[in-house]
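If you are new to this repository, start here. Below is one unmodified record pulled from the training split, so you can see the exact layout before writing a loader.
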Amino acid sequence: MTIRSKVNALKYSRITVARLTYGVLKKAWYLSKLLFNQSYRSKYYTQLKFGNYYFQKESYSTPNRYPHLFTKCKIYLNEVANLQILSFGCATGQEVFTLGAYLPHAAIMGVDINAWCLKQCKKKNGESRFSFFHRFSKEFIKSANFDAIFCLAVFQRSENRTETRDTALNFTFEKFEAEIIMLDKKLKRGGLFIIDNTDFSFTDTVCSIDYKPLEFETNKMVRERPLFDRNNRKIADIQENYRMFMKQ
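And here is the target side for that same chain:
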C-alpha cells in the first residue's frame, strides 16, 4: 500500500484514535498546500472572494484542445479585418496562444478570475496583440465588439459531473444564464459564440433566440455527461449540443 492509501484507510478504521489521526493528517495536508502551493492558495482565495463567479476551478489546460473548432473558426474569421477575440476563462493561456497561431492577425484578450492563472499567462506572453485581464477588471468590463467569444470548459462544476445527483448545485442555471447575457452584450452581430463542455445548454438561455448554430460535421457533439435544465434538474446523462453559433 502507498502512504496515501494507508492514510485514507484510517478514515474507515474501527479504532477511534486512527480516525482522529486521519482527520488531523488531512487538515495538516490542506494547510501545507495552502502555505506552500501557490496554485492551490490562489484557488482557495478566489473561492473566498469570488465564490459566486468561480465555476470551473481547475486550471489545467493543453495547447490545441479543440482543433476542429479552431480550424472552423479560422475559416469563418480569417478575412475579418481588425479581428478581436475573447477567450473567457483562459486559465494559464494555452487557448489564447493556440488561437493566436490559427489567427495570426487577431488581437486576443484572455480573461480569468484566478489571479495565479493570469500571472502565468503574462509570464508566457511574448506578443503585444495578446492581453490578459481579471474577470472584474475595468478593462474587461469596458470591453465590447468582439468578433468571436470562446467559452470552452468554463461553465461547469466537476461535482455536477462526477457525483451522482439529480440537481445541479453551487453552479446553477441562473448563474450560467447571467454570464451568457453578459458575454452576449460584448459580441458583434455576425460574431461567433463558441461554447463547449457545460452543465447546461446554451439553447436554453434567453439569448439563444438571436443565434443560429453553424452547420458542419463536428459542430454537434455527443458526450456522456449530465445535462441540467433551466430548473437545475438533471434531464439526461448524455449531451448532444451544438458548439459554435453565429449571432444574427
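Two things worth knowing about this chain: The longest strand covers residues 187-196. DSSP finds nine helices and eleven strands in the chain.
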